[in-house]
Amino acid sequence: AADLGVVLAAAGSFRDLAMDPGTVVIGEVGLAGEVRAVHRIGEQVREAVRLGFNRVVVPAANRKELREVGAEVVGVETVVQAMHLVFP
Fold first, then answer.
1. Phi, psi of 48 (to 5 degrees)
2. What value does the mean pLDDT of the chain take?
3. Smaller CB count within 10 Å for the chain: N or C?
C-alpha cells in the first residue's frame, strides 16, 4: 500500500516539490500508472487520522468503503491525478 507514496516522493524530489505534511497517501501503483485498491483500507485510514493527518489520498476504488473518518478523504484513479492533487 506504500507504492503511491514512494512514487509521489520520487516525483516531488525530481520537481523539487514537497507535499503538505498533513497529507498521507495510500495505494498500490500498476505499470500503467493506475492506482489500485488496497486491502484493509479502513484500518489504515483510521491509523493515519489517529497519527494526526488531516487529508488522506486513497485509491478511488476504496473511497466508497470509507465513511466519516475525521479527515478529508480523496480518491484518485491515476498517479497523474494524485500528483495534481498533492503538489501545488
1. -60, -45
2. 94
3. C
Q: To 10 degrees, what angle do helices 79-86 and 3-15 make?
A: 60
Give the pLDDT band (50/70/90) at residue 82. very high
Pairing of strands 55-59, 72-76: parallel
What does each C-alpha distance from 66 to 46, 57, 80 come to in angstroms?
Answer: 10, 12, 23
Q: How far apart are CA 82 and CA 75, in angstroms?
A: 9
Per the listing, cell 506504500 goes with 2
The Cβ of residue 47 has, within 10 Å, a number of other Cβ atoms equal to: 11
